[in-house]
């Protein structure tokens, strides 16, 4: 007798009534009516308790009701009862997908497709996972299958073209787009001017331009699709950039001009294109200049000859200025091209105008005139040593001082001005001067001026902000917090000053106050910390983590850093939403940008801070295992009976206290948690899991370090710290080759840095004890070491550094400290010489911030120098407010 | 006298009340009580209590209230405080503040302020500048001398300045 029981699966259908119910279950699931879906699934299961597909569907519904464990059990049970059902496999895949277990999900989908190769739904789900996981070959195959099955859908064509594009088959992608366009009948809306047609044309154009040496075709295509394109801005930008690439500079200049006429005069990038066209620069420089951030332009990027400058000035004077004399950028950008008296005059006009208007960012803007050349490019100077000596800076200071004294004498900016200025002009002149003091590292003078400003106008928040910043730089974070908090109180709706106050409070170790302040801007109900987590407020969590780390609350610090890491996981997950949406909306250019961004997600600064924070914490835990073993019992066996008794009593007491404290903490947390729950009825959040980081503390420190360090090496190779961390981790893991690699990277990036010097010495000293190595490895290590030490012995290498540091008055303070420490390390009797390296140089060194002064002090104390007090008084002369410094 | 500064007016709220404190602290020798600040905020009356903004920030404030005149059903506008930061004085800001209160009276004299028939304030007897300001600019008259009106400043006496509005 054939077995027709649907419970045995394998295609035996349910009776009509139950089959209809099953359809309803799916319908309710799709419309998110989970309770109804469960009810109807249960009705089927009453009759056929072992029906696989129903069990699986019920599991899927439960999963969406946040009953993950139950869901897994049911879906697995369903699958066991009906291994040959594509529904069960599909559901199994969906379950893994919701757990972000993508590889397992892909396997399950593929299994489902083996049983049911024509299921569009499963194919679509699979394709999305494939692009998410960047299985681009698989993605292309799947999209091809879908297209063959349903060649009449626009989405399927575009998705296949995209797949080809992502796979690097650029010509293939173009032809897919063309075939698709060919399938449309004449007069179809997709062929007339409109957003979607425009985007598709521009996407096709983008692919054309990505084909090597194909700019000519891309430029021609721009002209053919001109009538379709509604995004005229990017059309014009592409045109100008193609023309520059092809060396058609005169045409590019015309294109740039037409962009100005379109109203794009305030976009510095267009100005860069315009200037590149005039100077007939090569493609690479054009691209670099186009990518400059903010208000920077070619004029503040590339050192130019006087003829080139004159050429540009003439162009601006004759071609641009008459038509756009009201544009701020048109006035501002040529300022970077003039010199001498003309600079003085133009800069004067620029500054006076801003002072009258009251522009808080004036100083910042002016700092972009203080440029120093590095590797043939300009950079904005950042070290006070460079700034103070810079001619442009001296000029700005001179002008500011002139205005201040003239205003004081006769309330005018210039003695022969017709009208007197309003009182705010003087205020902003002082404010500018204070900002200039900040750039030059003259914090005391800046603070004194700001006090004068505050007396003049105690209602201006900007004054408190700058004063706070100066106080912080001069080592007095507590007063900085008070100042900022006072400014914050003036306008409690100013979110910026509120955030700034929060940030400073975290830096000052006032985490409770910080939470109190920032809570003024979080949702009013519920737990503010959970709200900040939900809002993915990374800067706060990073600040709090660092605050905990300083308080030696290791677990909590780790936990906060982990929150930021989690945000990035979420950002990565978020792209899922775009895979189907963007193709449907034909925003393909933006979509490919998103994919690129997601590929480089881990190179973002916030991620870097979180990962490097975690590495540093785990390194400390590794170096001080006592931290994690605080509860371990002392060794009683070596004690006398009396000592033992005493020690045990102390231990008991400590334990009791700890327990009490923990209980109290728990109570407090519970109370907070309750409040949160009641207010918004939310369930447990991720934040409640391991709130004190106890679980994280139990992990193997070096394994964790290695995990994050390898991510940073891959995604943040341009940061110095990536490689210092890789070195520090690799040495502890005895991975000498990785350590050596890090040293070579550091050497190439900044061979003058203290971080590099310190580690080369460390490597050289430890090289003798690397133990047994394979001969090839041994040779690489030996050769590498010889090369890094410049063929010197370690002690000669250090001696050479000592001479170098002594020869350079401005050699950076951190480097001096590193060299001094190395000197003592190899020869304990050289403490005096080492001390001199630090103290004698005084604070004329580069990088002589409060922070590096503190490190220098620690070093001096570390080798028990007699001159600690000398250093303290040297530093206090420059930074009289520096706190906790003796 | 410098050039005139055109100010804009803004409401005094719980979120910016600290600025009123700063302005008062900079202008007056006496410290006002918490209740004064509380009432200003609670009143939420932009026509009677207001900040003067110039170039985007606060440079002065005027706070007034409507109060009953003892022994009658008449009312008067009473100016509690008027202040302009020292650096911004002599540029017509105080005048604009008082004028705006008078304008408010004109607009409401047959409605909400129908019972109001005078505007008044107290001024320390030594404060010639203030008395001149009210007399010459707005035609206030010197009223009774109130002895020992102030507690912590010298001289402690003040005059009532007033102007009949109808």
From TrEMBL, chain A:
Keyword Repeat: yes
Biased composition (Basic and acidic residues): 660-686
Source organism phylogeny: Eukaryota, Sar, Stramenopiles, Ochrophyta, Bacillariophyta
This protein's UniProt keywords: Repeat, TPR repeat
Protein's organism: Cylindrotheca closterium
Protein name (record): Uncharacterized protein
Statement: the UniProt record of this protein carries the keyword Repeat: yes
Extent of Basic residues compositional bias: 647-659
Per-repeat ranges for TPR: 86-119
Automatic annotation (TrEMBL), chain B:
An example molecular function term from Gene Ontology annotations: N-acetyltransferase activity
Domain N-acetyltransferase: 7-166
An annotated GO cellular component: NatA complex
Biological process, per Gene Ontology: mitotic sister chromatid cohesion
Alphabetized UniProt keyword annotations: Acyltransferase, Transferase
Gene3D superfamilies according to UniProt: 3.40.630.30
Family matches, as InterPro entries: Acyl_CoA_acyltransferase, GNAT_dom, N-term/lysine_N-AcTrnsfr
Xref: CDD domains: NAT_SF (cd04301)
UniProt-listed Pfam families: Acetyltransf_1
Name of the protein: N-acetyltransferase domain-containing protein
Organism: Cylindrotheca closterium
